[in-house]
Amino acid sequence: MTTTMITVPPRPTNPLDRLRWALIDGWVVGRTNLYHWRRNPGLITQCLMYPVMTVVFGFVFGSAMVVAGGGSYREFLMPGLFGQTMMFGIITTMMVTSSATAKGMTDRFRTMPMAQTGVALGRCVADVVTSVFELTILVVCALLVGWRFHDGIGPALGALGLLLLFRFALVWAGIFFGLILPVEAVGAGYVPLLPLTMLANTFVSPTQMPPWLGAIAEWNPVSATVAACRELFGNPGVVGDSWAARHAMLLAFAWPAVIMLVFVPLSVWRYRNLER
């Protein structure tokens, strides 16, 4: 009788080797998550239904709303819906992370000789890739209801990049909350997210709100990304004299950086300290 010995490679100690190790493991886990997503018709249907709703929303309200500064409401609305979609993606991240933890998948990853940050990076890879898919469908649907970008393909791609940056930052928040919340509590995440996306420049310009409410809306992270996207798309709605309104592009980079500075270490810490 022969015994097969499995040799576990030693953990790298060089910082560059550790980074390479984490990136490779992150890609492997991300690819695995994408396979699961592709075989889950419920998640695919969810990705398809929201863009269809945007078409309906644009047609129903497109001719009844007034845009501050003038312009088409449909062109004003669509960047807001893009930003809201990226924000709501945090629920998907929370659901998948919490479900994997409840089923013991996360614990199995922790017992394997892999980088501790690889699992979180893999979740980020999978969610960003699916967000690209969602944005592609959203853009096509937006074009169908009359939305257009006016400043060329380069700025338009830059706006889509800002949306994906925002989504990437929110993935880390979703991972953290998915690791601390049970599966049955994750669905309640829509309760705080809905007012957070409504109290922004998503559907109405903050200049059309009461001053105190408009000030809160202008400093909303969603508002920063949406305002910067409207500017890059050449869409109406880029108005306001406040510091936040005049520096939306800066805040579109600053808010994701702040979110990651907070939730990246929290997510890694929580992952490493899960109860066995």
Overall SS class: mainly alpha
Counted by DSSP, the helix tally is 12
Overall average pLDDT = 78
What percent of residues adopt helix (DSSP H or I)?
over 70%
Separation of the first and last Cα atoms: 35 Å
In the predicted model, the low-confidence regions spanning at least 5 consecutive residues are none
Shape: globular
Strand content: under 5%
Question: Care to describe what's here?
Answer:
It is a multi-pass membrane protein. Pfam families: ABC2_membrane. The protein has 276 residues and is mostly helical. It has one domain. 72% of the residues lie in helices and 0% in strands. The protein has twelve helices and no strands. It has helices spanning 15-38, 41-61, 73-102, 105-110, 118-144, 153-180, 183-186, 190-198, 211-218, 221-233, 243-246, 248-272. Helix 3 (73-102) packs across helix 10 (221-233), helix 5 packs across helix 6 (153-180) and helix 6 (153-180) packs parallel to helix 12 (248-272). The relative contact order is 0.15.
Describe, in short, the structure shown.
This protein is an all-alpha fold.
Key features?
12 helices; 276 residues; globular; mainly alpha; single chain
Give the SSE layout:
Elements: H1 15-38, H2 41-61, H3 73-102, H4 105-110, H5 118-144, H6 153-180, H7 183-186, H8 190-198, H9 211-218, H10 221-233, H11 243-246, H12 248-272
Helix pairs in contact: 1-5, 2-3, 2-5, 3-5, 3-6, 3-8, 3-10, 5-6, 6-10, 6-12, 10-12
